[in-house]
Amino acid sequence: MALDPADQHLRHVEKDVLIPKIMREKARERCSEQVQDFTRCCKDSGILMVVKCRKENSALKDCLTAYYNDPAFYEECKMEYLKEREEFRKTGIPAKKRLQKLPTSI
């Protein structure tokens, strides 16, 4: 059974696992300042990071949660996923391999 590349239907694993994974990756990129602040605080605080980095941790959580709860952001990530899936169904080549540079001939 060949799958239609343009099919927009999502399986449960796509809705519950794959799209949220894209959302996490993109949210971490967009909250990079808060990620850096929290990472720096943890490195500087050592074992006391639980106590000393509450402010940075809260800022990071707030930033990430704002993206996770944004329906427009979910739709953006869903469309990105559907575009990648459509391309895979057309070519049979996963996105990771497609994005790698092709070796140049000698």
Low-pLDDT segments: none
Helical fraction = over 70%
Structural class of the secondary elements? mainly alpha
Number of strands: 0
Largest sheet: none
Number of helices: 6
The end-to-end distance, rounded to whole angstroms, is 41 Å
Q: What is the residue-averaged pLDDT?
A: 88
- Estimated radius of gyration: 19 Å
Oligomer: single chain
Shape: elongated
Please trace the helix and strand order, writing H or E for each element: HHHHHH
In terms of DSSP E residues, the strand content is under 5%
Family: Belongs to the CMC family.
Keywords: Disulfide bond, Mitochondrion
Protein name: COX assembly mitochondrial protein
Subcellular location: Mitochondrion
Describe this structure in words.
Its main location: mitochondrion. Belongs to the CMC family. The longest helix is centred in the last third of the chain and has 21 residues, at 71-91. Helix 1 (12-30) packs across helix 4 (54-68) and helix 1 (12-30) crosses helix 5. It is elongated, with a radius of gyration of 19 Å. With 106 residues, the chain is an all-alpha fold. Helices cover 74% and strands 0% of the residues. The model has no long low-confidence stretch (mean pLDDT 88). The protein has a domain at 27-90.
